[in-house]
Amino acid sequence: MGSNKSTLQHIPNAEELMEETGFSAAHIQRLYDRFQLLDRDQMGGLRNEDFEAIPELVTNPIKDRIIGAFLSPGKDMVDFPSFVRVLAHFQPTNSKRSKTSSQEQYNSPTRKLQFVFQLYDQDRDGKISKTEMLQVLQEMLRMEETDEQLQSVMEKAFQEADLDQDDAISFDEFKKSLEKLDISEKMSIGFLC
Amino acid sequence: TLASPDVQKQLATILTGEGVFFGIEAKSKSDHSHNGHHQNASSITGIPIVTFKWHHVEMPYTVALWILVAGLGKLVIEANHHVTNVIPESALLICFGFILGGIIWGADKVQTFSLTPTVFFFYLLPQIILDAGYFMPNKLFFSNLGGILIHAIIGTCWNAATVGLSLWGCHVGGAMGDIDIGLLQYLLYGSLLSAVDPVAVIAVFEQVHVNEVLFIMVFGESLLNDGVTVVLFNVFDAFVSLGGAEIDAAEIIKGIISFFVVAFGGALVGVVFGLLLSLLTRCTKNIQIIEPGFVFVLGYLSYLTAEMLSLSAILSITFCGVCCQKYINANMDEKSVTTVRYAMKVFANGSETMIFVFLGISAIDKTIWVWNTGFILLTLLFVFVYRCIGVFFLTWIQNKFRLVPLDFTDRLIMSYGGLRGAVAYGLAVLLDENKIKERPLMIGTTLIVVYFTVILQGITMKPLVTWLKVKRATSSDLMLIGKVQNKVFDHLLVAIEDISGQKGHNYMRDKWNNFESKWLSWILMKPSARKKHDHVFDVFHQLNLRDALDYVAEGECKGSLEFIRNETAYIDFRKKFGDDFSDISIQDTFRRDTVPSISLEMHEQTMNGLRESEDMNTHHLLQQHLYKGRKQHRHRYSRSHFDVNQDENEVQEIFQRTMRNRLESFKSGKMGVTPPKTITKHSKKDTQQKVKKEMRWNRPTLYSDLPYFEFSEESSASGYTGSIPRVSYTAGVGIENPAFMPDLDPMAPVQIPPWLAEGETDSATVAPSQRAQAGLPWTPSNLRRLAPLRISTRSSDSFVLADTLPSSSRERDELPPPPSPPPSPPHS
Questions:
Q1: Which residues in chain B touch residue A157, judged by CB atoms under 8 angstroms apart?
Q2: Which of B495, B499, B491 is nearest to A78 (CA)?
Q3: Who among A66, A87, A148 is closest to B492 (CB)?
């Protein structure tokens, strides 16, 4: 791997992060630089405002959810380890580093799917309710849509996915409904060194 | 390849020596001139009533006969699908060609017909490549372009060099006996054998349905390597002419430069023609009948222009197709698009058939069978082995950079799929006899290589794919959540790239989409198409519209639309579709796109006129945002089958939705002032009846106002003939549907169509019409599966009455006493 350990010393817990997430030293360094860049007031954490300052992100319809995904519940600042952990979900699944068992790795298909599930499930109750689904649909539309149409789409989606008919989609049902999608392929970004 | 003077001389010898066009014998020409004399002479002796003027029609007749024979051959072959499942059609066609060639040889003892390069390169190949370009899955193609180019360029050069050099090495080593071929000629031979052939790839991969990445890699390579092949062939051909002594560094450098010129020049010519074509279709609003003609003519011209400039013709026509697809599909009229799509398939299919038949016939020629075991076997071996080595090496390098690496089985199939075909044969025939003494041997060996790849590799491809459990094309019946999810992914990935500061793949894609929608669409698409383009309408959707209308028509004629009763019931159209609607529903092989996608909007085209701004067309937005991503998953490249991936769930879904939308318009159209978000239950039923009644009797006037309601007198489902006309719909005419105008102030008076206004006298109380009562709105039993709407419990409408009297349903001539006018409805 050729990691240059000395340069990483100023990054707290770099070693553990590398172990945990599977990023290489170069990746960590790069992400740290990026983190510093985003953290304009140098508080050691990213806040909503810092995210909002990213120009391209503003036009993204689901940006609030994504930003929310970075924030651990209860906190309003994203520190560097959380930042890296979230981004670790987007590594390609077959990256070579597999020190921990594949289930625990951040970029395993299950973890990726859990991340996506969290995007829907904002109240973190482990289920996607009808309202939550409706909200996602509403966000992804640029302009107005009558609630009825959205409602019918959402109803249909629920009918298909909600196998036990409890008016909420659990993680397993979610997983099943997406089994035709190749999650690991779709949800991967090449992290440049 | 046909531009150099030696080649032209070659062509001349082919043409005069073998006769015009299909190599008709020389003797027929002398007959022809003789006959002309004879005819002049015969007119003196008396007036002939009927004469047999064979030579008058000889050429076109022969051409037509050959096309017919090829078609008949295909008919015979396709008669039994069990056979074609095992042996690919192309192999069977070649065998058919053998048989035909044998017959001809038996009759004439000489080969009278063969696949000449002119015919092949000018008349048979272009339409196949145009078809490939036009139906190319662009997103998939461009996202894998890097890999494709690596294989096309480096892979082809590698093949050419290694095969040529190895053969020469073996020659020097004495394995081939006594033949007169020099190093340069070996290299030339290697270069003509190096090209993976698009026709063969399509023919073999079509039945196998491997996963799309694998397919696009091989297919894209087969298309793009023409640039390299052309250059290599010409360069080595020139070298052979010059002789070994003349080759120095300058020539080699010129060769390398010519590669760039030929390849990029060819692509550029194609792009130019593609843009030209898009611009042209933008202006053809008034003469829509010519549009398909333009497509084919400009495509062909791009091919010929590139050929004229000695650039790569295949690259040119490919890129022409690739660039123009989006715009011409948007600009052209619905019917033109269907025509173009289907005609392309017909031409391409026809050409492919003829090519394979003639490949078979060309084998029956005594002159080419110079048997040299060493040469032939070694060629076969080297072609195969070096392909495998080349592919594995290149994919190994690629995998270091790919996000999703290609796995072993994919790589194996990629190397196995390096099929040679008619292009190699055509180039071999172009070899100059004088310069290359062993031309017959080369032609013969090339044919053997082609047969080996197409027949043997073709037959074994499917079992191999199954045995290796290669990932197949997803018959993606993604659920609705999956579709939503795709969109979420698109946004998510772009966001993550932005956050982590990378300009990755998704970022590029996003940027290109922005650029394209801002500039290119503005120039190349009709304004009306531009507005609608975001809300892409497939023929599949239109078919559903048609079906919905037919369904409504049929239901109404039979007296009811039961599904309006209960809004929440689940509509199960699956069986309905299978049983009753097979004749009208998705049976046509004409499809706008191979990809069905969900569309919610029924009234799109008519609603355009209702509001200028697009806020109204909320359905499109749902479609655009939710379902745009899905299209990319669903490309199924097939030469002969133009199917929609039929997905019953989806069909059902669309139907349900469209029916609901339609009914909402029924419901609220009458009232006009119904607040958009709360559609009263009472008015639903009234509107339903009143509108239905008016619809039925005022048909002529309605037709102009509501172009959608094309009822036919007989309620036959198949009576629907017209397509949805694009009528500019003026506001205020016809049924205004507040459901589609969410911003409308609920209390603002909306113009109510005159015929509906009559009923406004007493707060929308409507007595059911005589007919409606008489034929109690009864559904035929098969309509019961539709989800009825919820009706107010206080309604004493005949529908509700009908509910309680199931037994007396079918008596239409018996008029039950009209129910008393319903009590005044609760206010909404």
A1: 479-481, 484
A2: B499
A3: A66
Phi, psi of B550 (to 5 degrees): -60, -40
Q: Which of B477, B491, B649 sits opposite A60 (nearest CB)?
A: B491
> Residue B370 has which token pair?
């110079």
Give the residue from B505, B526, B547 where a domain finishes: B526
Question: How many Cβ pairs closer than 8 A exist between chain A and B?
Answer: 161
Distance CA B33, CA B622 (A): 70
CA B681 to chain centre: 45
Q: Say yes or no for a CB contact (<8 Å) between A90 and B496.
A: yes
Kindly list the residues from chain A whose CB atom is less than 8 angstroms away from the CB atom of residue B482. 177-178, 180-181
Give the best residue of B475, B486, B492, B507 to mutate against chain A (max A CB count within 10 A).
B492
Looking at chain A, which residue has its C-alpha nearest residue B614?
A143
Among B605, B509, B135, B544, residue whose Cα is nearest residue B328: B135
Instruction: Answer yes or no: do B438 and B553 share one domain.
Output: no
Residues B516 and B439 occupy one common structural domain: no
Question: Residue B266: what residue type?
Answer: G
pTM: 0.64
- Residues B549-577: tens digit of each pLDDT: 777 777 776 665 555 554 444 444 443 33
Question: Which one of B129-138, B589-598, B759-768 scores highest in mean pLDDT?
Answer: B129-138
Token pair listed for B809: 């349903």
How many structural domains comprise chain B?
3
The nearest CA of chain B is from the CA of A192 a distance in Å of 7
**B548 and B502 in a common domain:** no
Which of B404, B498, B657 shows the shortest C-beta gap to A56?
A: B498
Residues B332 and B290 reside in one and the same domain: yes
Residue contact B502–A189, C-beta within 8 A? yes
Torsional sign, CA B512, B514, B519, B525: positive
Q: Which domain holds residue B539?
A: 534-566
Residue B365: CATH number of its domain = 1.20.1530.20
Residue B682 lies in a domain: no
Per residue in B375-424, pLDDT (tens digit) is 889 899 999 999 999 999 999 999 888 877 888 888 999 999 989 988 99
Q: Residue B742 and residue A144: Cβ atoms within 8 Å?
A: yes
What residue of A is the nearest CA neighbor of B571? A156
Looking at the structure, do residues B443 and B377 belong to the same domain, yes or no? yes
CA distance B211 to chain A (A): 12
Shared domain check, B429 and B360: yes
In a domain, B705, yes or no: no
- Bin A2: left if φ > 0, else alpha if -120 < ψ < 50, else beta: left
Q: 3-class DSSP state for residue A119?
A: helix
Nearest to A181 among B478, B505, B600 (CB): B478
Find chain B residues with C-beta within 8 A of A192's C-beta: 502, 504
Q: To the nearest whole angstrom, how far is the Cα of A100 from the nearest Cα of chain B?
A: 21
Q: Of B395, B417, B416, which is closest to residue B406 (Cα–Cα)?
A: B395
Q: Is residue B503 part of a domain?
A: yes
Structural contact between residues B321 and B136, judged by C-beta atoms closer than 8 angstroms: yes
**Interface-testing mutation among A148, A154, A183, A187, with chain B (most B C-beta atoms within 10 A):** A148
Judgement on whether residues B392 and B509 belong to the same structural domain of the protein: no
How does DSSP classify residue B520?
I
Q: What contacts B475, CB < 8 A, 6 or more positions away?
A: B645
Residue that terminates a domain, selected from B418, B435, B468: B468
Whole-angstrom CA distances from B632 to A177, B143, B332, B490 are 19, 11, 22, 12
Whether residue B376 is contained in a domain is answered as yes
> Which of B402, B483, B485, B563 to mutate against chain A (most A CBs within 10 Å)?
B485
**Contact between residue B590 and residue B642 where contact means Cβ atoms under 8 Å apart:** yes
Dump pLDDT digits (tens) for B272-294: 999 999 988 888 888 888 889 99
* Together in a domain, B342 and B303: yes
